[in-house]
Amino acid sequence: MDKKSAWIYCRIDAPEDTHGALKGQYERLETYATQMGFIVVGSSQDLGSGLNFERPGLQAALEAAKAGSFQVLLVDSVSRIGRDMAKAMNFIQTISDCNINIYSPMEGEIKLSDFAMPPFQL
Prior knowledge:
Blueprint: E1 5-12, H1 21-36, E2 39-47, H2 56-66, E3 72-75, H3 78-81, H4 85-97, E4 101-104, E5 108-110
């Protein structure tokens, strides 16, 4: 069985990484990749707000996804993608359209259907 290629994306909501949080995130995701049998082929990271989706690390992951450079995106949690749920859902849809699955050690596979609203009932 061929191992799937993975991209690691890390983000912290801080202007600088004084406590090594990005390194910790990366190491957790690298360990998770090994446990899942994925081969890490690239990574990117960002510092700053999860409300802004014009982050260089996120854009690098998206460009690599569109280029078909990997099959799995690894994030610590869906909140690392972003905190604006509509924009996060849009990003997840775009990644899914590239035939890429998103995984988190805490949340498992992250799918757009996980965010579907239940029907409104009176």
